[in-house]
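FORM 7B: Structural annotation worksheet

SECTION A. Query
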Amino acid sequence: MDVRELSRDQLTELKGNYICEKNEERGEGTSWGEIADADEIISDAEIFEAYAGYEFGNDDFGCTAGISEDLFDADERTVLRSVRQCADRITLEDIERNASAV
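SECTION B. Predicted structure
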């Protein structure tokens, strides 16, 4: 499916991944707040432009790949899905910096 055909949950998940990728390109870490607020930080238009021509399937997204997240509320699901996408990019320094900010 085209990026414009993604569900709201899939689009939000993609935005979280996009933030991680952009921060990584700049040599920066990604905060939990950025991941949680990805839908407000990144516009749909920016994602449509960045992923124009890509073909997606339901298995490309944690929210539609059969993963049960019924135990989480909506905000926790957004963070959980996005963290899955960029967990390998988050460093110990990022975790410590964000933990000290709480």
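SECTION C. Observations
The chain has one domain: 3-101. Residues 62 and 68 are 9 Å apart (CA to CA).

SECTION D. Sign-off
Analyst initials: ____
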